[in-house]
């Protein structure tokens, strides 16, 4: 058996175990006849032993496509399909993957009474540390729902919808396992001032990967130049959708909110493109781990502050100055004086993966932390993990040990993410260049026009005329992924620069990343929300 076969076995085992830690009673639908699954609509109950579980609007499609179903956050969800986790991971990194994330919580927060964006943003800012007031129409902000001690109740996406009719409204997407608690907490805190309208009648799917934009562009040309972390409500193929350019894989992509009754037809439309395949929870976890993204309840929780988690950038510049968010005193003290622990990337030196809960030891054998997420990185063909280490561990001490089954295994602390992130970055040159090329086909030729053959006559110049250097047309390049986290990519260059100038960040691991981000984005001319 060759190395690739060994690797595939390892990643399948690791990813499946990770996905099923909270889902021990997996049900395998591989024996379900296609005809039977096709007849079973979304309203039909899932597998017999999982009758108490909820089903997403795409449940019948998962069964038809032989999804291996597991309990997850109260829903019966596919952990993988017939091709396996390794191939699904590779599919998303190289082409495009379609994920069902309808189990997540969607809601609209609507202002009660007079006012607009300023007023609704001021209300939500009493619960989160993000800069919501500064969001432009169509802008998205990754932020954190905090408790009074500065711990993270959840991480979420907040969108300011476009259109005057939507002034005084925000679109929220929260995690599946915490959505009921989140919505109850928000309603309690903002009751009488804002109304939370749950969008349980909507499905949510994520189209992720380097071919995602190419595929969705065929149905909705406007998505081609949508900046990262922006959203747009539109009608696509007769369906009213909310398209957001964001994701949880480290790749370019979109999250698409669709009316539940239209979800299956819309998913099938996307799957009709040869570049797209369905992807399960197993590959979703390995993709986000490679991208260095936190999983709520594992890498972040109510006992963890944004500073400890390395999410300092999620606190808006103005918010740091005003210190008016929950737990601000504790969080700002940690920002200035250092937190007691920090989240780090970890790469075991052997082939044994480090599971969640594995103890981390220093060179003297003292326990200095724990693994919070661990598994196998199919892209780099190596075990990878994230965890927390005590602040007492020197920044330059990267050699550590992992206590696995009573034995110390060598590992090292490495920068996050483990793989290069490739979020779409649209500077003016790219936008203008793409606009000029909108009427070109995939071969670069104008639609409806024939390319004229060059002849020798074209190369002849009038006597005495010097041959001038050919003026180069600006190239439309695929934006390079920056060596910064997804979350830092969400800030504008001005916000990042101001953070460096006005707020002294004393965490040595944070400051270089901020300075690097400023250097890389100083030339960027557009201001993203």
Structural features, described:
The chain is an alpha+beta fold. Helix content is 27%, strand content 24%. The protein contains 16 helices and 20 strands. The chain has helices spanning 3-20, 34-39, 59-64, 85-94, 117-124, 179-190, 212-219, 260-271, 281-290, 317-322, 328-337, 428-436, 456-459, 486-489, 493-502, 511-521, and strands at residues 27-28, 68-72, 75-80, 96-100, 105-111, 140-146, 152-159, 169-174, 194-198, 202-208, 231-236, 239-244, 253-259, 276-279, 341-348, 359-361, 367-377, 382-390, 399-404, 407-414. The strands form four sheets. The protein has a six-stranded mixed sheet. A six-stranded antiparallel barrel has the order 15-18-17-16-19-20. Strands 6-7-8-5-9 form a five-stranded antiparallel sheet. Helix 1 (3-20) packs across helix 9, helix 4 (85-94) packs across helix 9 and helix 15 packs across helix 16. It is globular and about 65 Å long. The protein starts with a helix and ends in an 8-residue tail after the last helix. 45% of the residues are buried. Residues 1-8, 18-50 and 428-529 have low confidence and may be disordered.
């Amino acid at each position: 058996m060759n190395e690739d076969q060994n690797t595939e076995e390892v990643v399948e085992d690791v990813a499946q175990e990770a996905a099923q830690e909270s889902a021990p009673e997996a049900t395998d639908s591989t024996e379900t006849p296609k005809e039977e699954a096709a007849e079973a609509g979304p309203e039909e109950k899932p597998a017999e032993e999982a009758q108490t579980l909820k089903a997403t609007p795409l449940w019948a499609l998962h069964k038809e496509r032989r999804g291996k179903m597991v309990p997850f956050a109260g829903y019966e969800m596919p952990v993988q399909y017939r091709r396996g986790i390794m191939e699904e991971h590779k599919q998303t990194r190289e082409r495009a993957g379609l994920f069902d994330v309808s189990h997540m919580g969607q809601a609209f927060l609507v202002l009660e009474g007079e006012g607009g964006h300023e007023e609704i943003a001021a209300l939500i800012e009493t619960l989160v540390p993000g800069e919501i007031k500064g969001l432009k129409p169509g802008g998205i902000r990754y932020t954190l729902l905090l408790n009074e001690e500065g711990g993270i109740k959840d991480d979420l996406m907040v969108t300011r919808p476009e259109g005057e009719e939507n002034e005084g409204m925000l679109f929220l997407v929260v995690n599946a396992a915490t959505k009921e608690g989140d919505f109850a907490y928000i309603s309690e805190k903002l009751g009488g001032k804002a109304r939370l309208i749950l969008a349980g009648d909507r499905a949510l799917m994520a189209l992720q990967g380097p071919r995602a934009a190419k595929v969705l562009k065929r149905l909705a040309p406007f998505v081609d130049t949508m900046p990262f972390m922006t959203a747009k409500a539109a009608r696509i193929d007769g369906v009213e959708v909310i398209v957001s350019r964001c994701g949880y894989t480290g790749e370019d992509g979109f999250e698409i909110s669709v009316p539940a009754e239209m979800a299956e037809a819309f998913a099938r439309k996307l799957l009709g493109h040869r570049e797209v395949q369905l992807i399960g929870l197993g590959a979703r976890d390995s993709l986000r781990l490679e991208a260095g993204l936190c999983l709520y309840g594992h890498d972040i929780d109510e006992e963890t502050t944004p500073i400890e988690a390395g999410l300092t950038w999620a606190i808006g510049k103005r918010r740091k100055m005003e210190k008016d968010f929950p737990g601000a005193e504790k969080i700002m003290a940690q920002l200035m004086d250092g937190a007691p622990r920090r989240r780090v990337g970890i790469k075991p030196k052997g082939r044994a993966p480090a599971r969640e809960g594995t103890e981390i030891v220093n060179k003297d054998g003292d326990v200095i932390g724990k693994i919070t997420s661990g598994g196998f990185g199919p892209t780099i063909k190596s075990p990878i993990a994230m965890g927390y280490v005590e602040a007492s561990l020197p920044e330059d001490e990267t050699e550590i040990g992992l206590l696995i089954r009573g034995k110390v295994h060598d590992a090292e602390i490495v920068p996050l993410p483990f793989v290069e992130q490739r979020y779409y970055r649209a500077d003016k040159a790219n936008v203008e260049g793409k606009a000029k090329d909108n009427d070109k086909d995939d071969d670069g030729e104008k639609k409806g026009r024939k390319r004229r053959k060059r002849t020798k006559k074209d190369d002849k110049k009038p006597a005495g005329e010097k041959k001038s250097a050919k003026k180069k047309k600006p190239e439309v390049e695929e934006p390079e992924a920056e060596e910064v986290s997804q979350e830092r990519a969400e800030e504008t260059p001005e916000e990042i620069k101001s953070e460096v100038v006005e707020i002294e960040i004393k965490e040595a691991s944070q400051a270089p990343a901020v300075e690097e981000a400023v250097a890389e984005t100083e030339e960027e001319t557009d201001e993203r929300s």
